[in-house]
UniProtKB/TrEMBL annotation:
One of the primary rRNA binding proteins, it binds directly near the 3'-end of the 23S rRNA, where it nucleates assembly of the 50S subunit. GO terms for biological process: translation. This is Large ribosomal subunit protein uL3. The gene is rplC. HAMAP family: Ribosomal_uL3_B. Keywords: Ribonucleoprotein, Ribosomal protein, RNA-binding, rRNA-binding.
Length: 200
């Protein structure tokens, strides 16, 4: 499995060989370092822990964990049963190629406290015919029986800021010299969001 951590830069467009405009998201993926190889015998599951960036201050436990690698800003891990990597190995964008399909995971944009129309797509009440002050209200949240609000009832609340994974994103271009990978279409998060890119 291929895996790398990168930082979302923003969206732009490129042209394919037929001259068609392709919207892409640019991700800056500086070399990642393998921080730990987890095994089923020792840790209960097989995984690879990867770090990126540099940090000025880290906790003592993290500093001890990374003592010979230098402090990293972000640590993530992915499940892999037959990894050939070793601790301290570097992973760069050249492992990916244009045309590959990948899964992208990141934290979505935060929207703050939103109503049911924006948050859940409710249609709202009719605009006229007696409607007063209730155009975007949720309506009924339960019947007389069972005399309680059922768990999971969709209501207003905080929206966004959740971990989102999008599958089957196509790699449009890889620039190993500039450490940039271009992904076709949109991906979760705002510019600066840390994204995990891995093969499906």
């Amino acid at each position: 499995m291929k895996f790398i951590l990168g930082e979302k830069l923003g969206m732009t467009q490129i042209f394919d060989k037929n001259g068609n405009v392709v919207p892409v998201t640019l991700v800056h993926a500086s070399p990642n370092v393998v921080a730990q190889i987890k095994t089923k015998d020792r840790d209960g599951y097989a995984a690879v822990q990867v770090g990126r960036g540099s940090a000025k201050r880290v906790s003592k436990s993290v500093a001890g964990h990374l003592k010979d690698l230098g402090a990293v800003r972000t640590l993530r891990e992915y499940r892999d049963n037959d990894s050939k990597l070793e601790r301290g190995a570097l992973i760069n964008v050249s492992i990916f190629a244009a045309g590959e399909k990948v899964k992208v995971t990141g934290i979505s944009k935060s929207k703050g406290f939103q109503g049911v129309v924006k948050r859940h797509g409710f249609h709202g009440a009719p605009a006229t015919h007696g409607t007063k002050h209730a155009h975007r209200e949720p309506g009924s949240i339960g019947a007389t029986w069972p005399q309680r609000v059922i768990k999971g009832m969709r209501m207003a609340g905080r929206m966004g800021g959740a971990t989102i994974s999008v599958r089957n994103i196509e790699v449009a271009m890889v620039d190993a010299e500039k450490e940039i990978i271009a992904l076709k279409g949109a991906v979760p998060g705002r510019p600066g969001t840390v994204l995990a890119i891995q093969t499906n």
